[in-house]
């Protein structure tokens, strides 16, 4: 910069105004170019940082979705299996020859309904709530993420309603005298099942004795299959499992679709 100051002083002292004006313009241009170059380099740095963060978000989102597909398949297959199990029981009402002790296991197991599975949404929710969704440059990916979150929320709400409409109400249809726990212990005793040894404290904490001759409130298998409430209960539970299976299939399809969008 010292050489420029000397040149400027020389032009002024020698009254070379025209050349001085040209020099001044050149100096201004150099400053402007320097500023623009600095802005460009800063923008380039910010752009790379944004691309890095976007790649990180997409990578984590892809990992979450891949994990979700595995769990969603398990949930779908679980409800398929439970629907078949429930239908096996309802069919026994139509065919007396199916009413045998092997039904006892299905009668008990079909009542156990796992908690509703939710896809892994941590990364998506974080993106949306923090506003970082705007870091995603691709309109297709950004809209795909928002649409996915909206559809997942709607399907999960439907699944919640199914639990109340079919599983909870189905269990309520059981007659008061059908004690599931007693029925289960009775079946285990008839089948020769021996539960694992328990400590004194564990035995004290369970509501039935470790050894018994008869269960309270005994009920014959045939009695159950003349009770319309039992039939309605398992029929409703079966419908709930079938509908849940379809909903999890929809969730799986939506998840796979978003994965395809991310990989384009």
How is the main sheet built? none
What portion of residues is helical?
over 70%
Query: For the terminal residues, how far apart are their CA atoms?
Result: 51 Å
Q: Output the helix-strand order.
A: HHHHHHHHH
Query: In total, how many beta strands?
Result: 0
Structural class: mainly alpha
Strand content: under 5%
Protein architecture, described:
The chain has one domain (2-178, 219-263). Helices cover 74% and strands 0% of the residues. It is built from 9 helices and no strands.
Question: Tags for this entry?
Answer:
264 residues; mainly alpha; 9 helices; 0% strand; elongated
What's the short version?
With 264 residues, the chain is mainly alpha-helical. 74% of the residues lie in helices and 0% in strands. The chain contains 9 helices and no strands.
What is the fold's blueprint, element by element?
Layout: H1 2-13, H2 17-92, H3 102-109, H4 122-130, H5 139-172, H6 180-190, H7 200-205, H8 221-224, H9 228-263
Helix pairs in contact: 2-3, 2-4, 2-9, 5-9
């Amino acid at each position: 910069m010292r050489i420029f100051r000397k040149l400027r002083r020389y032009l002024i002292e020698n009254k070379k105004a025209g050349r001085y004006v040209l020099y001044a313009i050149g100096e201004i241009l150099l400053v402007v170019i320097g500023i623009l170059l600095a802005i460009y380099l800063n923008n380039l740095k910010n752009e790379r940082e944004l691309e890095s963060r976007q790649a990180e978000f997409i990578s984590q989102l892809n990992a979450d979705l891949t994990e979700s597909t595995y769990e969603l398949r398990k949930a779908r297959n679980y409800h398929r299996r439970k629907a078949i199990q429930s239908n096996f029981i309802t069919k026994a009402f139509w065919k007396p020859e199916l009413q045998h002790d092997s039904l006892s296991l299905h009668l008990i197991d079909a009542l156990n309904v796992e908690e509703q599975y939710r896809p892994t949404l941590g990364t998506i929710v974080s993106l949306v709530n923090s506003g970082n969704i705007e870091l995603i440059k691709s309109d297709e990916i950004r809209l795909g993420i928002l649409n996915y979150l909206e559809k997942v929320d709607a399907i999960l709400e439907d699944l919640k309603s199914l639990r109340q409409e079919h599983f909870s109400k189905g269990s309520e249809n059981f007659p008061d005298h059908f004690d599931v726990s007693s029925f289960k212990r009775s079946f285990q005793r008839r089948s020769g099942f021996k539960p694992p040894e328990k400590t004194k404290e564990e035995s004290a904490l369970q509501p039935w004795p470790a050894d018994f001759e008869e269960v309270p409130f005994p009920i014959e298998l045939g009695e159950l299959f003349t009770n319309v409430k039992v039939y309605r209960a398992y029929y409703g539970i079966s419908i709930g499992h079938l509908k849940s299976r379809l909903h999890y299939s929809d969730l799986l399809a939506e998840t796979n679709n978003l994965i395809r969008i991310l990989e384009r």
